Amino acid sequence: MRSIKVRYAALSAAILAALGLALAAIFLPGKPAQAQSPVQSADYQQQEPVPPYRYIMKEYQGKIAIYSSLDQQRPQYVTDFDTLALPAYDRQMLERGIGLRTEEELQMLLEDFSS
Asked: What is the pLDDT of residues 36-58, one digit of tens each?
């Protein structure tokens, strides 16, 4: 008789634990259990909206120029860096324009191009 009571108590505890987990899964917020691509990862989806570019780096008369994102007609600043000395990929990117959000990004890219 005692073993039946022990089995009944263990079974009851297991059922209550399973019920508790099921209720927690239903009512507590969480991520859906589905496969996500790297682009659709939870971290990517929770990022703040990307602010507009502050600077645009482009080629201007064979040199690297910095444009304000508000006025893309005239460069704010034209560097002494000759675009012909750059690899073809970098020249293509400069022809399209490289968007930069911060002055730190701008300085880092200028340093990369100068080395």
From this structure: 433 333 443 444 445 688 899 99
